[in-house]
Amino acid sequence: MESLDDIQIDVAEPFETLPEDVYHVSVSSIKKKEAVNPFNGQEEVYLQFEFAILGGNSDGKKLYQRVRTKLAADPKPSNLCRIWNATEGKNHVMEDFKSFSLSNLLNKELRVTVKNAEKGGQTYNNIESYLKAPEPTTKEEKEENVLEDLEKGIDE
Questions:
Q1: Quick check: is 10 in a domain?
Q2: pTM value?
Q3: Residue 67 domain flag
Q4: pLDDT in tens, 94-106
Q5: Which residues, including other chains, have CB under 8 Å from residue 53's CB and lie 6 or more apart?
Q6: Which structural domain, as residue segments, surrounds residue 59?
Q7: Burial 64-101 (b: 16+ CB within 10 A, else e)
């Protein structure tokens, strides 16, 4: 029998909080995970999205988002639907759901709005919104398109 002292313990690297901003990202991985829901005590499946930042000072850094395995468009889109909407630059409706494939989201580009939140004295990055991938090349065009997307409700 293996003793407790034989178990390899990994030392975690310090977590670096990214500045609040809109980041151009790619869906680099999606993993199925399980965890106990703290509200009902039931084991639930969720998706762990990993987003790789493309370009800028944070190029290559990662952002993570837990997403429920629920695809809903109305009255309020689920996070999974919001990610899908952003990768395709359109608002999907129930009729579109039969064409949905989780694997089609891999390596797709989009933008995410990151806000910082504090909990227990620690600052965390929270993804607040999902926007379609950028087409512009200048900073002014980028800011203009973010405002246009928010006005059109691409994220809502």
A1: no
A2: 0.76
A3: yes
A4: 899 999 999 999 9
A5: 18, 23, 24, 25, 59, 60, 61, 62, 63
A6: 18-152
A7: ebebeeebebeeebebbbbbbbbbbeebbeeebeeeee
